[in-house]
Structure to design on (148 residues):
């Protein structure tokens, strides 16, 4: 029988920039070593999703979240035939300007939401960012302003 867990992820916006992190070799087992991702992780037993999100972002980036604006997405992700993750992705902001790198990642960088120039291996993340981009720029053009 397979294993199931619940995870939370944070799309952190600063103006029109989104924070992405490059995964370390710690994720080699599932083929995500070197892949760009957003902060997040698994909810611990008894933990509320928002509390888990704040904890994971702090652990991975050293940043405190200012606002959890809204839930962007909730979906099931299968890592393999035996691992199912129910993943909740939130739109967030922060006032922290200092970002620190944890041992789970090798690089951390802010990308223009309209011009992410790295390949996103996680097709679900790509889908969430594409939907957010369309929501913030409904005319299809690019903008340097966001509503957050």
């Amino acid at each position: 029988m397979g294993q199931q867990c619940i995870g939370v992820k944070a799309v952190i916006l600063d103006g029109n920039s989104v924070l992405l992190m490059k995964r370390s070799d710690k994720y080699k087992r599932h083929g995500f070593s070197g892949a760009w991702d957003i902060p997040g992780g698994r909810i611990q037993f008894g933990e509320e999703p928002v509390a888990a999100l704040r904890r994971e972002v702090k652990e991975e980036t050293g940043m405190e979240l200012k606002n959890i604006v809204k839930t962007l997405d909730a979906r099931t992700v299968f890592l393999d035939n035996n691992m199912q993750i129910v993943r909740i992705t939130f739109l967030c902001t922060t006032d922290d300007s200092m970002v620190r790198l944890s041992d789970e990642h090798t690089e951390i960088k802010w990308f223009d939401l309209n011009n992410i120039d790295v390949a996103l291996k996680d097709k679900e993340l790509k889908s969430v960012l594409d939907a957010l981009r369309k929501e913030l720029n409904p005319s299809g053009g690019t903008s340097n302003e966001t509503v957050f």
Remarks:
- The domain at 3-136 is CATH 3.90.79.10 (Nucleoside Triphosphate Pyrophosphohydrolase).
